[in-house]
Amino acid sequence: MSTEDGAANVMWGGRFAQGPADIMAAINVSIDVDRRLYEQDIAGSLAHCSMLVECGVIPAEDGAAISDGLTRVREELRAGQFSFRRELEDIHMNIEARLAELVGPAAGRLHTARSRNDQVATDFRLWVRDEIDAIDSALRALQAALLDQVERHADTVMPGFTHLQNAQPVTFGHHLLAYVEMLGRDRGRFVDCRRRLNECPLGAAALAGTSFPIDRHMTAATLGFDRPMANSIDAVSARDFAVEFLAAGAICAMHLSRLAEEIVIWCTDRFGFVSLSDAFTTGSSIMPQKRNPDAAELVRAKSGRLLGAMTGLLVVMKGLPLAYAKDMQEDKEPTFIAADALMLAIAATTGMVADLQARPDRMRAAANEGFITATDLADWLVRTLGLPFRRAHHVTGTIVKMAEDRGCALDALSLEDMRKVEPAITSAVFEVLGIDQSVASRTSFGGTSPERIREALVAARERFL
Ligand code: ARG
User: pTM of the predicted model, to two decimals?
Assistant: First the structure.
């Protein structure tokens, strides 16, 4: 297991005579996961290298050789021509070993005043930061797709639900705008996370800092960080940025799962509020009539990965003593899996939202069921007859019962019938019993009237797009 010259490992062979047991190597290796950090790792190394030259820590010609070499390694990686070696454990050592092959002993100077502990913390922060930027634009695209549907359906009346029972009529545009708001807050959470994570661990070295005269402000600025992290022990120990990223992701995925679930419900034969095209549905291998909203179901399910990843990383970090421990190598896999799942879920949701065809006739028919304007009747009794709301609620309940017993809608009852319950009711009551009147009357800020929805649409495009 040891290498021929007796050096067990290119990095720490001075101390070790033997190589690791196979099972030690198997549990230790992370290259299959952290190879994904290569862009960030090379960016970090390039910044570190030029700072070392600038500060006179390494000779300029070695610095130039290292930079050229890193650029070539990056080309190999981008072209898929890099051969990863599992015995080199992780992405940091793979890149450094290849650099040594390309530029010789000068490569050995790159790791001056640096440790893999601050290196990996820096790489991972850079990766999460890039991912946040990608998620932000994906979420914006989803908001744009929703707002296009809002524009089409500012006047489309559907039943609004509580307890998934008909509650009050709303417009489909209003309902979709609720998701635009949720996604706006989701974006805000990612932006907050980005702001807090944007400090640079590089130069913290193993944990204590370094005796070399480095300039951490320089590397921080080169890498687009706002400042170096203030405490070197914290710099290599902290993973709350990743937990926070996953928490923002879990909340966002929870929102997507609610929309996905509604799409599933809306697509059922019973509801039929929307239909999805061939592009976003699948058929059944046995039932020829089927058209299944699989994408929506999978978006609904992906939220499990996000929540699982967040919980998993919290458990990894819980109770860990400062500073670095190898436990923390388990931070990346769940984060990558979760981020991929989230990006896919956002893209699939955007596709479905753009694809879905609303069926206003079905929505309207459903909105006419379930005595959905009962609140309008109660409000009318309060406004016109001056009844206390509780009394109006009771009167309305009696009238609803009457309609229910007869199997008719509220506005199909006669004035005479209603007067049996409350003698002061006049024929003007019929003006509030229709669903269009109901929707049009809800003009309070944030309310469902088409007038407000059109204003809210303009405002949302300004705020979010
Ligand atoms: N592969 C390691 C990780 O992802 C890099 C840091 C290793 N540091 C160490 N002291 N062994 O965490």
Answer: 0.93
